[in-house]
Amino acid sequence: MIVPMLKYSFLVYHAEYKSFLKDLKHLGVLHIETKRKEPTSKMQELFRSHTDLTRTIGQMRDRVKDKNVEGDKPALKSGDEVLNRIREVEGKLEQLNQQVGHLEKEAQQLMPWGDFSIDRVQELENSGVYFRFLVCRTKQYKPAWEDDFFIQVISDQGDYRYFLMIDKSEDRTENPIELPGAEELQLPDKSLGAIRKEQEEIKKEIAIFNSELDLIAAHCMDALEAHSVVVKGELDESNAWHQTEKEVEDQVMLIEGWVPKPKVDELNSYLDKNNILYVAKNSRDDEKVPVLLKNNRFARLFEPIGNMYELPNSKELDLVPFFAPFYMLFFGFALGDAGYGLLIIAIAFWLKYAKVKDVKFRRILTLAQWLGLSTVVFGVFTGTFLGINLMEAEVAWLERFKEYMIDPSYMFYLALSLGVIQILFAMVLKIINISIARSFRYAYSTVGWLILLIGSGVTYVLKITGAFDETVASYSQNGVLIGSGALILLFSNPKRNILMNFLAGLWDVYGMLTGLVGDVLSYIRLFALGISSAILGFVFNQLAFSLKPDNIILGPLVMVLVLVIGHSMTIFMAGLGAFVHPIRLTFVEFYKNAGFTGGGKAYAPFAEKSVE
C-alpha cells in the first residue's frame, strides 16, 4: 500500500534556520518539495563528486572481490586522503600503461629484424657503412637486387619481406638508391632487448601500484564510504537551502515538503517544543506527492520487480500486493519441475545463510525460495521431476498420488483460466483506482465490462449444467447485455452527453474486444514454457542414457556429466523464461487492465545518512 502524506510548510526566523535544518535532518522525515529544478554550481559539483565516489567505491570493491589481499593497512586516515591517493595512483598507472603501449609498438616494429645492437649499427655508420632497413611485398621482391646491391634478407612476415641494404655511396642522401615497391623504415633508437627490459621494469612498477590499490580496497573502504556519506549530506543540505524561499525582507525562511502520516507525531512534538510555526495539510489533486510503499513481508519481496517498471503515483493503488501471488504462480507454472524447484530452494537457502550478509540480497534469495516452492507445487501436480514424467513412472508408492496429478493437455486450459482470472481481477482494481483518483461515476464503463464478462460466463455455465433452460438463459443473457451495454455505451463519462458517450463507447467496444482476446491468449506462453522445460529435461535424460559408454567406470561418469550439464542448461534457460515472461504478463496485461498510471517519485527524506 501507499503511505499517505501530509504537506508541511515551515516558517522559521533566519537566525535560527541553520539550527532548524540540522534538527530536521536529524529527524529524517521530511521529503523536501522541489521548487527550483535548476541546481546551483555548487550542487552540480557535489553531485559529480558523489557520483564519482560511488563509482570509485564500486570499482574498488570489485578489485578485491573473491581475492585474498595480504599486507598492512596504508597510512591513510581520512576518506579524502584515500580518494586523493587513489586518483594519484590511477594517474600514474595510466601514464605507465601508455608507456608500455608505446614500447610495445616500437617492439612490434623491431620484431621482424630480431634483437640487434643499435650501438653497433651506429659505430658502423660512423665508419662509413650505412644501413637501410627496407620492406616490400614478398611477390615484389626481386632476387636480382642481391646481384646489384649489398642486400641481406632478414625475415618474412606474412606477405612482406624485410631486408637490409648496405649503402656506401657518397650521394646517398641526395640521390638514394630506389627499389621499386620497397619502402624504407625508420626504426626506434633502442634494441628489442632494451625495449623488453624497459617494459618489464615498467610492469613491475604497475604491479606495485596495483598492489597498493588492492590494499586500499581491502582496508580503507570504510573511510571512503564515510566520505561519500559526508558529500551526500552536503549535497542534501545545499538542496535544502536552494529550495528555501526568503520572505519578509529575507527575515523569514520558508521551506515545504512531505511527511508520511505515521511519522507526523514525532515531527509535531519537535515543532511544538521549539515554537516553530508550521502548517500541515492534505495534498491537492494537482500536486505530485512522493511515494512510500508499505507492504507485508510477503508482498515486500516483490517490490524490486514492481520497481523495474515504475512506482505508482500517490492517487492510485500500489499493485505489488495484488500481482505478487499471481507472479509466484506464473513462475511455478512456467518452470513446472519439482526437482528444479527443490534445487532453487536449496541453493537460495545455502547462499542466504552461509554466504550472503547484505539484507537486500537476502530478500531476493527469500523471493527465490518462494518461487522455488511454487515450482515444486506445480511440478508435483503435473508429475514432473528433473525431466522424469512421474505419471508414467512405475513406482508403487506413487500410484495413489497419480489421481491428483494434472494431465499436460489440461495445462493449456489452466493457463487461459489463470489469465481470465487475473484480467478480471485487474478490472476490479481499475474500478477502485478510478474511484480513488476521480469518482466512481467514471468507472461505469469498466463496471459494464465486468458485468458483461462475468454475467455471460455465469449464464453459459448455468446453461450447460442444466440450471437454466434455454428460455431463462436467453432472458439472463439479454439482461446482461442490456445492463452492461448501457453502462459501456451511455454512461462511460458523466461530463459528456449521451451521443458522445455512445460514439466513444463504440470505439471502446472495438478496442476492448480485440485487446481482451489478445491479452487472454498471451497467457498461453505459460503453458508453452512449462511444456518446453519438461521436454528439455526429458531430452537430456534420454541423451545421458543413450550416450553412456558400456563401461563400468566411464558409463556412470559420462551419464552424470551429461545430466549435470544438461539440467544446468535447462534450469538456466527455463528459469530465465519463467522470470521474464510473468514480468511481461504483469506489466502489459495486468497493469493495463488495472488502469495503472504510474509516474510516482520515491520518498527520499532529508536525513542523516549512514554507511551501509
UniProtKB/TrEMBL annotation:
Localization per record: Membrane
InterPro entries on file: V-ATPase_116kDa_su (IPR002490)
Keyword Coiled coil annotated: yes
UniProt keywords, alphabetically: Coiled coil, Ion transport, Membrane, Transmembrane, Transmembrane helix, Transport
Transmembrane domains' residue ranges: 326-350, 370-390, 410-429, 441-462, 474-491, 498-517, 523-545, 557-580
Keyword 4Fe-4S in record: no
GO function term, MF aspect, one: proton-transporting ATPase activity, rotational mechanism
Membrane topology: Multi-pass membrane protein
Main subcellular location: membrane
GO cellular component, one term: vacuolar proton-transporting V-type ATPase complex
Coiled-coil positions: 79-106
GO biological-process terms attached to the record: vacuolar acidification
Family label: Belongs to the V-ATPase 116 kDa subunit family.
Name under which the protein is recorded: V/A-type H+-transporting ATPase subunit I
